[in-house]
Design a protein that fits this description.
Elements: E1 2-4, E2 19-23, E3 26-30, E4 38-44, H1 58-67, E5 76-81, E6 86-92, H2 94-109, H3 116-130, H4 138-143, H5 157-160, H6 163-173, E7 179-183, E8 216-219, E9 224-232, H7 235-255, E10 262-268, E11 273-281, H8 287-302, H9 308-320, H10 327-341, H11 348-357, H12 360-372, E12 375-378, E13 389-390, E14 401-405, E15 413-417, E16 420-425, E17 428-433, E18 437-442, E19 448-452, E20 457-460, H13 470-479, E21 485-487, H14 514-540, H15 547-577
Parallel strand pairs: 3-7, 8-12, 8-13, 18-21
Antiparallel strand pairs: 1-2, 2-3, 4-6, 4-7, 5-6, 9-11, 9-12, 10-11, 14-15, 15-16, 16-17, 18-19, 19-20
Helix pairs in contact: 1-2, 1-3, 1-6, 7-8, 7-9, 7-12, 8-12, 14-15
Length: about 575
Amino acid sequence: MTTELHDHNDLAALDGLLSHTTVQGIPTLYAPASGNEITAGLFFRVGRADETLATAGITHLVEHLALHRLGLSDLHYNGATANAYTLFHVTGGEEEVVSYLNSVCAGLRDLPMDRLETEKEILRTEAAGRGGGPNSQLPLWRYGAQGYGLSSYNELGTWGLTPDQVRQWAQSRFTRDNAVLWITSGHVPEGLDLTLPGGRRFPAPAATSALPVTPAYIHGDDGHVVLTSVLRRSTAASVFADVLGRALFQDLRQEGGYSYSAEADYSPRDAGFATLTAYADSLPQKQDAVVGGFVDTLARLRAGRIEQSELDSVRAKLLKRYDTPDLGAASLPSYALNLLLGHRVLSPEQHKAELNAVTVADLREVAREAWDTALLQVPGRGVDWAGFTLAPQFSPTAVTGTRHQSLEDERVTLVIGAEGVTLTTPRGPVTVRYDACAAMTTRPDGARGLTGHDGFTVTVEPTLYRGVTPERIAALDAAVPPVAVVRMPAREPDHVPQPRPRTPASSTPARTTWPWTLALWLVGLLAAVWGLLCAVITADEASAPAPEWGAVTGVWILELPLLLVTWKLYTARRRRRG
């Protein structure tokens, strides 16, 4: 049943810590753990980053289908789909673990396609209740609507994937050559049947970019400041993440009192790179202070102002992990994942030597790398003052074609051309080219939603633009590659958008009340002068019969136009507000 694993020479460094072999062609790592139960995990090198926006969710769907036949059980098991891998894991007795792994592989060989539509709906329900965290939008701004950016999007494939697509995905990606197994046991259990089709090991997807320049920033929700950076995987980089987390906590919470949570995390992305994520929360009235303190902390570390004591504290914490009982068993998931991704495998002695060799100068270099690749999400005002550039909000170019005026805002025009679509707005164009269309959703009522690989989206609603006829929609459909089309269900009639009152163009002359205001002031001034003149005449010519009546008559002659002007001014302003 088992044979020695000879094709991964770097695992020789782990001899004495864990054992390795192959089980029916699957590389297998195992090491004993205390207790009566064992834990096993079956990794596959396929995840969300391998999909397209139009097929997003296909890996997650295979995971659900493979687990369906297990049904209800007291056994602790689950599946997880990440960016670069899928994991099936279980904890229980040896026979239970064997039964679970055998069932997963049997399910992958023969997916229960009668459950396809039901599992699609379950995934949509799961997504609706999951929500997004403070950094949920950062991947799409960094990577676009492809690869590692797909984690920011809904799983569109749950609407249109066919049984053949799902079956082919399982047969090509969930293979023995694209898997690694780990078991917390001193031996490989008897009775395993992990028969899977042959294939090849898929490398992690190459990273894409939607950022023309970094460091960059975007605007986010109030109360959250988030930074992500892409770092080369190294021991120094993992140490820096801890140093940064401690520095943010000290600066923003302990000293500034601006934040409750301030932390940083280091997570492997692929064989060569990792993602650094730093986060701090804030009250609305403290947001500017948190942003300023956040940037200051990064600047301090980048300038090399790191105390040796900060490094020593982090190093001592990381070295303490090697005092863990059953170290080999505890290390199995990380070693298996490194083997799956093709990253180097270090023995505990090698890793401790690298930890002890990290210097403050090394951390300064990592801090500079983190700054150079940074994407910062801030609430409120921007951070141009700190050297960050606002991420692109509009497309650099627009297409030419048939123009369709917005029925809501005459400053907005939809252009449907031979190469793509553009929405022209007063601030700039948003363009999706057909040859760079990640997905186009379609509705029976004619609505279309096009998303480009760069993450920009143009929504075509026939009810909101003049002249978007079925013929124009048909021409649009013919231009988009079929693999990018996602057919959505019909909407209820009251969910189809209708035009709001139209916004006039800024160049249209606005009605103004300034002439009436000027007339009001002039009439009032004349009335005052007339009254004063009459009072003077009255004082000088006391013998004149009833002189006060001349003043009164004159004032009222001028006050009548004043009343008229006041009424005109009032009605004009009422019309303007309307």
